[in-house]
Amino acid sequence: MAEGWLLHLAGDRFEVASAGTRPAGLNPAAVEAMKELGIDIAHHRSKHVNEFVGQPLDWVITVCDSAREACPVFPGAKAQLHWSFEDPAVAQGTPGEIQAVFRRVRDQIAERIKVFVATAS
To answer: 78: Cβ–Cβ under 8 A, 6 or more apart, which residues?
Structure first.
């Protein structure tokens, strides 16, 4: 969802790539949550963070605590940031309750990315 938001809010200001420490494919609930706001992430690909080791990156941003723990260090990065969002993929409950978690995290990510886009240089 973070990749989708950054692409949507920043346009072509950034070259955006996202990856996980345990990629498991796109979560249909994430795709649906973003689609509700007109952002299509269905074409995104779930990638492992190791695909980017050794590549020059300006910003490395982890978005949940487990990713922060497992993310390798990217020594050439301008900054390595951590945004501690709940991992909606581990939410439990009814389908409606789980979707509500995805919506809440989606909206929290959007607010954080709006600030990032406004202040990043």
So the answer is: 58, 59
Rounded CA gap, 112 and 121, in Å? 15
What would the pLDDT profile of 7-59 be if each residue is shown by its tens digit?
999 988 888 988 888 888 899 999 999 999 999 999 999 899 888 888 888 99
Q: How far apart are CA 93 and CA 26, in angstroms?
A: 20
Asked if residue 121 belongs to a domain, the reply is no
Listed in sequence order, the residues at least 6 apart from 54 whose beta carbon sits closer than 8 Å to its beta carbon are none
Nearest Cα residue to 1 out of 115, 118, 101: 101
Please give the span between the terminal C-alpha atoms of the chain, in angstroms, as a whole number. 22
Tally of domains in the chain:
1
Residue with tokens 């938001």: 5
pLDDT at 98: 97
Structural domain that includes position 23: 2-115
Ramachandran angles phi, psi of 27, nearest 5°: -85, 125
